[in-house]
Structure formats: structure tokens, C-alpha cells
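call fold(seq) -> C-alpha cells
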Amino acid sequence: MPKKILLIDDEEKLRSLLARIIQLEWEDIVVVQAGTLKSGFQLLKQSEIDVILCDVKLPDGNGVDAVLTIKQMAPEAEVILMTAYGQIADGVQAMKNGAFDYITKGDDNNKVLPLLHKAFEKVAMAKKLQRLEAQVGKKYAFDQVIGKSKGILEAIGLGRKVAMTDATVLLLGETGTGKEVFAQAIHFESPRKGQAFVALNCSAVSKDLLESELFGHVMGSFTGATRDKKGLFEEADKGTLFLDEIGEMPLELQAKLLRVLETGEFLKVGETKPKKVDVRIIAATNRNLEEEAAAGNFRSDLYYRLSVFTITLPSLNERPSDIPLLVDHFVGIHAQKLNLNIPQIAPSYVEALEKHAWKGNVRELKNIIERSLILMEGEVLDIDALPYEIGHPMPGRGTPSQLTLSAMERKHIQRVLALTKGNKTEAAKLLGIGLATLYRKLEDDANH
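ret:
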């Protein structure tokens, strides 16, 4: 896409000269011209402009003041002001209003092209960041939550509604159900999406360090505090703080968290003056906090403050119809990660996953699929690539002939041979048997 520059100056000859100089510098540039601020604003409405080169003294207004209007109309565009009579006060005000630079006509002619180069670079970088932010937002949006079952669709519906508010959210569900993915989706579909999303697993930080991690500390506040440190509340200011495993937070810290939720203020470790922050809290747990509060393990006032809006994420066992969709999704992701062609997925592979009891939920399924792709032989992903307990029937699910010890042994030997690519010496070592024993078992298998 060609660069676009708008020249606003009431001196037509100067405009034409500048346009010619600029077009000689860049072959792909589009230069549009205006003699007044009014006509310049009209051109800004009609097309996407990258850089505006504007005179300060114009028949219908002042370029310094116009910078504010231009930045409102085209926030990503850069404005360079030109004046016949440079004044320090004007230059300072221009920069405060958002101008890229302020130059004097005649004296600074040699600066125009280098300045334009820098302005175009800044615009290009801003557009790149904007595209990346859009991609990140899309990556973490609810559209990326995989599933069509009733339970997951209800959770997505609730998430979308609460995302547009500033309400505190409590996510409930078993380990591995995707609570952090949901928290990210709420943030990236909220008005705070342009600000930081900061996550902390409360069970992953020791009790002694958790307070400093959340609220920060000042130098010398405890042994080892050799410098001031920002806490996660400061890092997440204007954005979202996700507190996973909130049920593991010590009671004394729960009181401090409650204060932040109620007042927006907190104290750094070792400091006496409170700091003010604007942070949205999303918390998550696999515990029953109501029961924990009744048992005295969790503050009931904090529980009520956190559970302003509660979303329960269904376990994978509650939505087996989503497993084929998740399999397709994770196979695609991990095949790309492992630099593999996307394999054909055998129906038996999906059926085995649908029958499995998923204690680790979606996280466990994702890990199993990655492992399967690593162990896969050929171009078809089938049950032989699954862990034995998933890919093979357990007692009560198979025929008697499939459940005999000798049948299971034969299957295991074949899997180890496949792993060693037919190297019987290596297979015997892995099986913990002698090479002669392996040959005998293979002969028995052939005669079976």
C-alpha cells in the first residue's frame, strides 16, 4: 500500500515544490494538498493519511491548535508543523498537542526529508503493533474456545456478557478445564483489551514471597530486598489480574486482597503510603470456596466479593461430544509445532479418547495428543499411538481373547519393536529380557 502524505499550506508554490521533492524521494508515495485547515480536514476524512506536513499560520486557523483535531481524526498519523517564524513556545505546545516535530521554513529545509523518513517509520511500526494486537486479541477471544456442547456454550455466553463490564469474575471448574483461557478471553473482549493481562498461580509462589509478588516491596523492607520492586497489581494497572488457585492464598493475604477490591488501594511491603490502582480481578479455583469459608479456610467476605459473577466450566467428561473438535484442533497445532504433515485420524483413535475418563480434562487431552504424534508410525494417527490404558480396552470392555496376558504381552512386544524400528537387540534391552527369549516369544507369536 503506497504511503500517503497531506500537505496543508496556503502558499501554493511552496506546496507544489514540497510535493515534487517528496515524490522524487519516494516513487510509491501519494501526495494530497490543501490550502486551508477546513479542506485538509476534509481530505483526512476521505482517505487514510500517514503523515501531515502542516503550516502553522493558515487563513482559517493555527496549525499548533489543529494538531489536537488531526490526532483525534487520525490517531496513527504523524504531524510535522512548519512555520516561517519559529517560536519556542509554539514548538513546546505543538509537541504537547501530539506533533511529531516542529521546524522553521528555510532554516530547516534539509530536515524535511529525514523527518519524513522517521515519521513514516513510526507510522509503520504503529500499524504493525496494531495488527499484532488484533492478532493477539483474536487468538485469545471466545471464538477460539473449542466446543459446541451445551455446557461450554452457556459458559461462553456468560463470559461474553460479563466481559463488557468491570465486574469481578470467579471461574470454577476442575483442573485442566481451561480457566486461564477463559480469563484471557474475558480480558481480550473487554474495554481493557489494550492494557496488560497479568496472571499469577497462587499455589506456585511460597507464602513468604506471595505478598511481595502481588503488591511489590521497597528496598530494604526485608532480607534480600536490594531494590524496589513493582508488584503485579501495579503491572496490571488499567488492565486485568488473573489469580489462579485463589483458594490456596493464605488468610492474612486474603484480607489485603479484599482491601484492594473494596478501595483500589494497597501497600507495598515496607511502605506506609498507599498506592491507587485500577485493576479488574478474575479469580479461579477448583475448590468449593463456600465450603472452605464455612470451614474457616477462606474469608467469607472475600468469597462474596469475588463471586459477584461466577462461571462454572464443564469438565471434559461432561462434554464428550466436543472431543472430536478438540482432537482436530490439537492435532493441527502440534503437527505444526513438530513440523509434521497433518495426519489422517483413525475413527478408532477418537472413539478411544471419547471413552476415556479425563481426570486432567482438556490439558490432559492436549498432552496425550502431542505424545501420540511423536509416537505415530506412518501417516495415520490410530490407537497404537495412545498410552496402553487409553488405546486398549480395560476389563469389562473387551472380549476374553483380547484380555489374556499373552495377548497383551504380544501387543506390547510389537509396540516396542515399532519404537526400535525392528532392532531386536535394542527391543530386548528395553523389555528387560534376553535376545533369545525375545526370539522365542516372537516364534510363539508367529505360531499362535
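The radius of gyration is 32 Å.
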